[in-house]
Amino acid sequence: MCWDALDLWRQGLIMADLPRRIIKETQRLMQEPVPGISAVPDDANARYFHVIVTGPEDSPFEGGLFKLELFLPEDYPMSAPKVRFITKIYHPNIDRLGRICLDILKDKWSPALQIRTVLLSIQALLSAPNPDDPLANDVAELWKINEGEAIRNAKEWTRRYAMDN
Amino acid sequence: MSFLFNLLKGAFLRMLQLIWFGKRKISNSLSIYVKTNTGNTLSIDLDPKWDIRNLKEIVGPQLGISPEDIKIIFAGKELHNSTIIEECDLGQQSILHAIKLPPGKNRLNRKKDTKNLIEESIDEGSEANESGSKPLNETLIDLPLEDSDRHENHSEQEQQQARAHFYVYCSLPCKSVEAGKLRVRCATCGSGAVTVDRDPQCWPDVQQPRRITVHCENHDCQTLLSSLAQKDEGTPQVRYAQFYFKCANHVSLGEKDEAVPLYLIKPNLRNVPCLACTDTRDTVLVFPCEAGHVTCLDCFRDYCVARLRDRQFEFDDNHGYYTLPCPAGCQNSHISEVHHFRLLSPEQYEQYQRFGTEEYVLRAGGLLCPRPDCGMGIIPPDQTDEERSRSPDEDDCRRIQCIGGCGYVFCRRCLQGFHVGECDSQQPTTYSSTSAVSCLSGYAIDPLRASEAKWDEASKKTIQISTKPCPKCRTPTERDGGCMHMVCTRAGCSFQWCWVCQTEWTRDCMGSHWFG
């Protein structure tokens, strides 16, 4: 009981300074989750989300569960959330540290976008890799020269890193 | 004991009364001016509960006119006898116009009235001169931004809800964003004794000249108009309305007391949620994009502050405003009335103005005095080809003096104290008068200590260590995180370069060392 009360109190503290928009978005993500995407706020920091994206069907990432981290900076939604893959992934637009090349996370960000739309765009990026706008040069190179082998690599990485649990 | 209690209770109630009714008592008497078309001005104290007929009865004897022969004009409307004063949006020191009807016209009116006697008797009563209408603030509906977006005929209730609310920036004396009042005068003579031929229905009606015609009661106006027509054949023989705004927060300071309308701020009649915080607020800012994206005023401030901090305001190429587009990135959505940025705090607005000025100077090919706390904008005179050919070593054209500011003499290229020869590792030549004095006085100065004691040396070193110059415009640039892809934030430069290679950003940079 005592711990519950403390927990509630802590939760209250965490939520206290949170803009209503973040609270609303979090509630909606919980109540109406996007198919194939889960985003759960951290217990200690409501601006930090643990994200899991399932690999889209008919892509080399199918069957994989990819962990990401998402952080809402102080002036969100005026500036974009910071998102990074934690699970290793073989993708021309995602580098070895999991950083993502996506315009809406940089100069095309708009406060009209949301956590939900960002994660959907990332899922779409998995379905449609863009080797002409690369982040991982070697991956992009192979994707252009020998797509078959690149897709085999992507499947192999998915099996090895995104399916073990 | 009970006596004391009663006394205390009485005093307490009196105080409560003072607190609660103090305001009402003051507003119970409304001091206004009544101007006539014969050049008189009366100062009158009114009870806001009176109607226009009461007012005519007071004004009439003072002017020596029968009350039936007067019409009262306010804000472009002739006010109906039954109109209650407090419904007219009148403030203290407002000016009403009392016009003496020409006898002929009055008779005509009466004739008309008898014709419509049945209607009249149902409507108001039997008194003559029942012309006039509701005041402008009662009939005016919320103005859409676009001409095409006019309101359809509303039901009474909808019209009540959709009644126009205006917001203005009051530069004096309030210095803040306030509720505003729409007023109108004759565009030809400037007289307020006009009646509009129709209500404005959209913002262009209010903002653009020659959209709505008026009937002007000023006697001199006709002569003015005909003399203008004689001068210029093109001047039309019609009079147009000139709309303007007043601040509703302070007592009117006269006819010249105007305020800037902030037409993007609107009451949220359609209950549109804010684009950023998704709350539905009472007052919103509607961006001038096709979609009409909406933010609440708090989010608008946050948006401005975020963009200001990154110096990411833009110049509207059509008009040259230093402004922002719709946050959703819509085309042609720049805010063209920059007074909307008055929603920012005074400090933030000052920063906005300073950035705007600096960016303008830089865009115009000028530079800013590099001396700390100066920052004067300097636009060096363009050099003729002849001058350039005369000074091939370029020393002269690199030498810039901060005229009108601190007087500092500096090198145009490296923005350090002026020097002869190449920019790198040059000590500034002794231009300052203080160093000249120290040479003359004959003291022995430890050069080491003197070099440490220079006031801008430390920051110069820090800048040298922590920045790299933009390869295009040489602005010292600091990288405080993120990737190696740099975009120069200096106005008109926007060069994309690589922090590692210090050249233009390429695909190779992206592939091999985007993040270092």
TrEMBL record, chain A:
The keyword Aminoacyl-tRNA synthetase does not apply. Belongs to the ubiquitin-conjugating enzyme family. The active site is at C101. The keyword ATP-binding applies. It comes from the Eukaryota. PANTHER family: UBIQUITIN-CONJUGATING ENZYME E2. Transmembrane segments: none annotated. GO terms for cellular component: UBC13-MMS2 complex. One of its GO terms (biological process) is protein ubiquitination. SMART domains: UBCc. Keywords: ATP-binding, Nucleotide-binding, Transferase, Ubl conjugation pathway. This is Ubiquitin-conjugating enzyme E2 N isoform X1. Residues 17-163 form the UBC core domain. GO terms for molecular function: ATP binding; transferase activity.
UniProtKB/TrEMBL annotation, chain B:
It is an enzyme of class 2 (transferase). One of its GO terms (molecular function) is zinc ion binding. Residues 1-18 form the signal peptide. Pathway: Protein modification; protein ubiquitination. Residues 30-105 form the Ubiquitin-like domain. It catalyses: [E2 ubiquitin-conjugating enzyme]-S-ubiquitinyl-L-cysteine + [acceptor protein]-L-lysine = [E2 ubiquitin-conjugating enzyme]-L-cysteine + [acceptor protein]-N(6)-ubiquitinyl-L-lysine. The active site is at C483. The keyword Ion transport does not apply. Its EC number is 2.3.2.31. The keyword ATP-binding does not apply. GO terms for cellular component: cytosol; mitochondrion. One of its GO terms (biological process) is positive regulation of metabolic process. It is found in: Cytoplasm, Cytosol; Mitochondrion. PROSITE patterns: TRIAD, UBIQUITIN_2. It holds the Pfam family IBR_2. It comes from the Eukaryota. Residues 270-516 form the RING-type domain. Keywords: Autophagy, Cytoplasm, Metal-binding, Mitochondrion, Phosphoprotein, Repeat, Signal, Transferase, Ubl conjugation, Ubl conjugation pathway, Zinc, Zinc-finger. Its main location: cytoplasm. Belongs to the RBR family. Parkin subfamily. This is E3 ubiquitin-protein ligase parkin.
